[in-house]
Amino acid sequence: MRRASSRFLTVCGLTCLCAGSALAQSSEPAVYIVTYPNGAQGKLSSMTINPDGTLNLVGVYDTSDTGPQAISLAPGGEYVALSHGTANNLNEKLDIFAVNSDATTTFMLTKLVPDSPLDLVWINDHLLAVAQTSVSGSNSVGIYTFDPGAPSLTEIARHDAGRFCSNLAMHPHGRYLYANDSTNNAIYTFEIFPDDTSAQVNTLFTGYYPLGMGISHDGELLYAGGGISGGGHLVLGYALNALDGSLTGLPGQPYTSDGASPKLVVTSSDDRYAFVGHGTDATLRTMRINNDGSLTSTGYQFDIGLQGTLGKVAVLDNLLFVTDNSTAIDGKSGIYSFTIENDGSLVMNGGDLFSTGSSTPNSIAVWNPRQRMVLAVTDVIMGQQAGFRITGAPPNDQFGLVYTLRGPGRVRPNGWQVTIDLAYPAQAGPIRRADGNGVSAFTLPVPIRSVPLVWFQAVRPDAKSNVVVRPLTR
User: Fold this and answer.
1) What sign has the CA pseudo-torsion 293, 294, 299, 301?
2) Contact 418/371 with Cβ under 8 angstroms?
3) CB-based burial of residue 8 (10 Å sphere; 0-12 exposed, 13-18 middle, 19+ buried)?
4) Is the pLDDT of residue 4 over 50?
5) C-alpha to C-alpha distance for 124 and 161, rounded to whole angstroms
6) What are phi and psi of 157, to 5 degrees?
7) What is the pLDDT of residue 252?
8) Which residues are CB-neighbours of 439 under 8 A, at least 6 positions away?
9) Got the DSSP string for 283-303?
């Protein structure tokens, strides 16, 4: 059984923590969307999310070029990066916007990157991975360091990514980056080290297109759509090895979808369901994730309409968002909001599309202010001191660091608004307090233990950080 079942646990010493104030990131749940009107100025739209799942348009902002393709929100919620893809065969523009507390954005910088950056993803708050997609030569993934003070974006590494890399996926624990190659039918794994260096560590040949990769929230599963390959109905599924980032086929994969040309997969926040978006029939379909990671169709679906009009999909807690990127036939485009029901069915919020304030909405990034802290951890070496750094904590307020040797899990202490993402978590060191900038840096001694990995997370009753997993080395 792949799921680490964690019984109710009150984490020692943490229940006394109090709630803090909002930070500079959006203080409300928010959605950010890029739109790419043909031949017209690209746009970035920001929307806040009401408690009932309906959306409010907050602002629409010009990007630096036409054709914005991809969007990614930094883990701390302070920066949005977006890339353009106009196929000029030389370079393209990449923009970074700062996020304000009311979910509006402010332009920061434009950077030229190799053509064409069809996808990008934040590795952490200061590292950004950008795909280079070329139809006529080798493809690559560039790693950039971001300095908000300058502001500047500087390339520090570049890795081969085959012949057609259009999609990147970052492991939720921050250690592994995945890049697809739909010419060689491969997925490349890159390891990101604490000192910001990186290296390719694994290659998996899938046999079919690996499109729109989605990693489960517990970091144990990776799914991808097979597109038109293999008959046009395949969904690929792999178990993810936390030790080396390698992928192993799940039982019975590839799976068959009832829709035509699966192009992306995202999982529900509790990893019970996979939502598969399709290109040819523009349907979004729900598949059940079984205990062994295999997929079974539930029969639930939503039809966007015309072929190719389903844009992108994103999940936030019990909400799912999907863009309709064309006004063809019905004369409207925008973003849908759904509530994910317990059986995997989708209930539309607001009764119709919400306008993004610009035509052709596509890629989506979502933000939950309850996960605003960002945790960074140095190498963890037995008998030495390990370094920890928290950013984005409530200024002058408290948080706790928890760890486990057991892997991912789900524990919700009594009265807390968030779930700790570790199995059988234990408190590491004393309760900490952030400084006036929401930052805390400290060291802890590493015991001598014969285990391969240790998982860490910073937590409060109203917020949590990312999970960081580190090898426990001698």
Assistant:
1) positive
2) yes
3) exposed
4) no
5) 21
6) -160, 155
7) 97
8) 389, 390, 391, 393
9) EEEEEEE-TTS-EEEEEEEEE
DSSP state of 155: E
**Which of 63, 193, 180 is CA-nearest to residue 124?**
193
State how far the Cα of 262 lies from the Cα of 46, in Å rounded to an integer: 28
For residue 15, is pLDDT > 80? no
Q: What is the pLDDT of residue 327?
A: 81
Our CA angle for 348, 354, 358, nearest 5°, is: 150
Q: Which domains does the chain have, with CATH numbers?
A: 30-367 (2.130.10.10), 374-473 (2.60.40.1930)
Residues 362-395: tens digit of each pLDDT: 999 999 987 778 899 999 999 999 999 998 888 8
Secondary structure of residue 231 in the 3-state scheme? helix
Phi, psi of 269 (to 5 degrees): -60, -30
| Average pLDDT of the chain, as a whole number | 91
Model confidence, pTM: 0.90
Of the candidates 313, 337, 361, 364, the one whose C-alpha atom is nearest the C-alpha of residue 49 is 337
Instruction: Give me 241's structure tokens.
Output: 């090895």
Q: Phi and psi for 274 in degrees, rounded to 5? A: -110, 130
Asked whether residue 74 carries a pLDDT value surpassing 60, the answer given is yes
